[in-house]
């Protein structure tokens, strides 16, 4: 364990993204963000103090906290949407000499310093009452570092940058940081329901919408009783993987095998996939009303498979009244896979399974399904009533 009390106290400084553009609503967004940060940090079991400062958020750790602890805090908040940069930092007294001492201390024993790397000091003042202007402070601290370590200054392409931010009650000093998720705080856009297959696309779609401020529930249709529970385990593992971005995730599972069987025996083979997708959406809409979600989310990408042609996507939109959000509509499969890899969902999605869709695989799927034909099938099925029954048979899995 390392404590470096000579430096001041460890803390973490957070830079907000788009929230800064929010004008009158900014207050609301910031409050939501702070409550999300507090909730995410609960699992670390540290008593932290999350404070709003002018344009930034500071997380203060308890007295005597270690560098490792502040790094753990930084790593955890790096998954909270709404932040663009996370800087593990030091909180030092608000006078030029303390800042200088901290700067020198921060450079000590660094590998870059031993190599004689070029450096720069960048200061900014959020409190203009500080006795030195930014460029004066840069030169004051930079000069001292130069004296101490003999490093060259390079303001254009420094390898090591010492950042100094003068705030209301203290000065934050840091080098480097980790990029955040960007986007908006989860919950600031409301609630939605993701149709989660266990495949590659839907977990990525869920993440993209969380990042735009939606808190999401997950709905999975399993082929039970005609398949094993494998697809449910996969969906559960995916939800667990994604939970770090929003917290309090719930997975809902609908046993869909029997409904599929009726679709197969009631209609034209080529329309079965779209008919089944419409039934999923109708069921999802019923569930959404019950949990007060105001949109559905799917992992559709235009043209990826026959059910995702423009005509077929339109036929799906007509099945429900709630909006269907499709964040991946313009993405290539390679782009979706790269994002899934980054999120850690790809390796789960690639595990073999048999979800309900594998039960229905016609030799030739219709690429231009007609709504009238679909309505015929649905009439025979009594699809509206069936959707309600399916919603009644739902099972909840809480993380
Ligand atoms: P994914 O990789 O997300 O499974 P996909 O490329 O396999 O997508 P489809 O099987 O056509 O595409 O599914 C399109 C969308 O329909 C999925 O992204 C998902 O939102 C929804 N969906 C498909 N199957 C299921 C299921 N068994 N349970 C819940 N939603 C599903
Ligand atoms: Mg799928």
TrEMBL record:
Catalytic activity: [ThiI sulfur-carrier protein]-S-sulfanyl-L-cysteine + a uridine in tRNA + 2 reduced [2Fe-2S]-[ferredoxin] + ATP + H(+) = [ThiI sulfur-carrier protein]-L-cysteine + a 4-thiouridine in tRNA + 2 oxidized [2Fe-2S]-[ferredoxin] + AMP + diphosphate; [ThiS sulfur-carrier protein]-C-terminal Gly-Gly-AMP + S-sulfanyl-L-cysteinyl-[cysteine desulfurase] + AH2 = [ThiS sulfur-carrier protein]-C-terminal-Gly-aminoethanethioate + L-cysteinyl-[cysteine desulfurase] + A + AMP + 2 H(+)
SUPFAM superfamilies: Adenine nucleotide alpha hydrolases-like (SSF52402), THUMP domain-like (SSF143437)
Intracellular or extracellular location(s): Cytoplasm
Pfam families reported for this sequence: ThiI, ThiI_fer, THUMP
Keywords from the named record: ATP-binding, Cytoplasm, Nucleotide-binding, RNA-binding, Thiamine biosynthesis, Transferase, tRNA-binding
Top EC class of this enzyme: transferase
GO molecular function (one): CCA tRNA nucleotidyltransferase activity
Gene3D superfamilies xref list: 3.30.2130.30, HUPs
Pathway terms, separated by semicolons: Cofactor biosynthesis; thiamine diphosphate biosynthesis
Annotated binding of ATP, by residue: 195-196, 220-221, 277, 299, 308
Keyword Cytoplasm in record: yes
NCBIfam families, sorted: tRNA uracil 4-sulfurtransferase ThiI
Name of this chain's protein: Probable tRNA sulfurtransferase
The species this protein was found in: Nonomuraea cavernae
